[in-house]
Amino acid sequence: MIRIAICDDNKSTLVQLEKYIDNGFRQYTTDISISSFDNGQLLLTANNREKFDVLFLDIDMPKITGFDIAKSLRKSFSNCFLIFISSHSDLVYKSFDFQPFNFIRKSPIELFKSTLNDVIKKLMSNMKQNEIIVLEDEFSGKIIAYYRNIIYIKSDRHYLYYYLQNHDKPIKIRGSINAIESCLEEYDFARIHRSIIINLKFILSIDTKVGKIHIQGNSGQTTLSLSNSYKESLNMKYILYLRKTL
Predict the structure, then answer these.
(1) Sign of the CA dihedral running 15, 16, 17, 23
(2) For residue 77, what pLDDT is reported?
(3) What percentage of the chain carries pLDDT values higher than 90?
(4) Helix 40-49 vs helix 66-75: angle between axes, to the nearest 10 degrees?
(5) How far is CA 72 from the centre of its chain?
(6) What stretch of H or E contains 133?
(7) What average pLDDT does the chain have?
(8) Which of 8, 156, 216, 239 has the most crowded Cβ, counting Cβ within 10 A?
(9) Cα(89)–Cα(91) distance, rounded to whole angstroms?
(10) d(CA 37, CA 46)
């Protein structure tokens, strides 16, 4: 289930937002739960009990602003999707400090509804990577991870090495890279070498001339080899990925 929270201090606006957001998500799934709050502290208290997946936040609210809520969530290392909703378009750049998924202007209403539907469409594509994968090896035991946290997978003989965000060492599992490749395509992964599959969201740049891909690793930029035989398919997949997410 996707747990969604909406926070706006204007109660009539809150009712409208819930209606539009509910309609937007139900184009893709009925497995949602929406909670509405006219007070930021109530939202944070509810989130402490059970984490929300998506938050739609008004920015300009008394006592606790949308930015205050976002700051609190990011301090607790929350990976929820933040979407700011505001009439003040001048705040869009300041919102970047909190790594929002998007920023939507409240007015005019028709533009708001159109933008909201576009944002939800992109969000559903991104949330595919929020699904869980269970990895288990002889050293680390069973590890529950998200697809979004897999940076890349490298094969060596009969083993696969999963490089994960916030993990110093890869998870070593017996398996075939050919077998895992087709399973990962729907989660925005691509083969770049006979022994490497990467998560497209971690790409920083692609240099097809020298056959190198620069990705965001745990300790900064990591460079991986790009085989000639995978250049064309990678470019196509990456363009499609950018169209879905940007």
Answers:
(1) positive
(2) 65
(3) 65
(4) 20
(5) 19
(6) strand 132-137
(7) 90
(8) 8
(9) 5
(10) 10
